[in-house]
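Consider the tokenized backbone below.
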């Protein structure tokens, strides 16, 4: 019997104003708008000016807090998922805690699971909430990928953007709030997607891995919840390439409009992509009180999924 019961309170996001269009990229590498759109679905991505990752994470958190008028005094767990934190220590989560003015006891720490980081963080927070030692948790995915992108490499520089997304959850006693998680890593391909100074990637390998693991991850939480895809209102996938999402849709026979896609506006924002997309979903009122699946994958390789009741 699954006893992970969580109530989703609110979501938020912060997207930097500056935009890098495909036409901008045409001027710096040998590429073109048509190739980028047809191979990735991306039209533009956002770029920080002088915002730090902690600034974006804080602003996404404030957006989530304000949207639900959530009492900041009840937040006693903050997890930031990022591969581009401000510094090694103090953590970006510590910096967010400070920016939020939280002075009461609050556990805050960062995690790194590449693009799967937000789903990992949500799982960790949900399990911790079951202990009832925390009243509400703030989980944030935030990235400044443009600072680690090599703008001489056309294979990668077209893909990545900046932004942050946040979610607030609290423990629940209601069985209808059952949540199911599946998170894992198989560290057998450490070279296909790395960030040492810059992002380096074997795109084709990542693509094949992603299509396969997203299907397994969706199936796993559906099986655990004893539900079928027809019981699910919306799938929120990591936004890495529209063709990955289309391939999953086709191969699993899931209508493409069951996947929320916003890659055209943001590109791949790594750990921020799922919470940013989730926040776009929250803006669609008609979808409230529904069941959703979040599904992600990333370097390591890591992967994960979550089935939530809103
Ligand atoms: C990166 C990616 C878009 C490349 O698309 P693709 O269809 O696999 O393209 P290929 O790598 O096969 O390259 C096809 C051709 O386009 C060229 N090409 C690569 N980037 C290009 C660009 N920006 N503009 C124009 N041509 C480009 C290649 O050099 C290659 O040319 P060649 O056939 O003469 O060698 C795709 O593989 C992808 O999205 N992979 C997954 C990436 C991902 O999800 N990363 C994040 C994980 S969290």
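A designed sequence for it:
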């Amino acid at each position: 019997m699954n006893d992970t019961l969580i109530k989703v309170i609110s979501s938020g996001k912060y997207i930097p104003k500056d935009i890098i269009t495909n036409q901008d990229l045409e001027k710096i590498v040998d590429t073109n708008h048509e190739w980028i759109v047809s191979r990735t679905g991306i039209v533009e991505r956002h770029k920080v000016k002088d915002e730090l990752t902690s600034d974006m994470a804080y602003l996404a958190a404030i957006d989530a807090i304000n949207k639900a008028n959530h009492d900041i005094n009840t937040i006693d767990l903050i997890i930031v998922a990022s591969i581009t934190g401000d510094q090694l220590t103090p953590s970006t989560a510590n910096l967010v805690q400070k920016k939020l003015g939280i002075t009461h006891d609050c556990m805050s720490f960062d995690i790194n699971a590449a693009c799967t980081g937000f789903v990992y963080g949500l799982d960790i927070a949900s399990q911790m909430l079951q202990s009832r030692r925390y009243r509400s948790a703030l989980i944030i995915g935030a990235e400044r990928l443009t600072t680690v992108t090599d703008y001489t490499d056309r294979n990668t520089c077209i893909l990545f953007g900046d932004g942050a997304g946040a979610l607030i959850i609290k423990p629940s006693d209601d069985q209808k709030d059952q949540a199911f998680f599946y998170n894992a890593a198989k560290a057998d391909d450490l070279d296909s997607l790395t960030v040492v100074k810059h992002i380096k990637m074997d795109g084709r390998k990542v693509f094949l891995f992603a299509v396969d693991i997203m299907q397994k991850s969706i199936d796993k939480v559906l099986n655990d919840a004893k539900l079928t895809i027809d019981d699910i209102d919306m799938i929120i996938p990591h936004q890495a390439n529209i063709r990955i999402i289309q391939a999953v849709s086709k191969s699993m026979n899931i209508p493409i409009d069951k996947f929320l896609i916003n890659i055209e506006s943001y590109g791949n924002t790594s750990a921020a992509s799922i919470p940013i997309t989730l926040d776009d979903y929250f803006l669609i009122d008609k979808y409230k009180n529904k069941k959703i699946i979040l599904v992600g994958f990333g370097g390591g390789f890591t992967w994960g999924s979550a089935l939530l009741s809103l």
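The mean pLDDT is 96.
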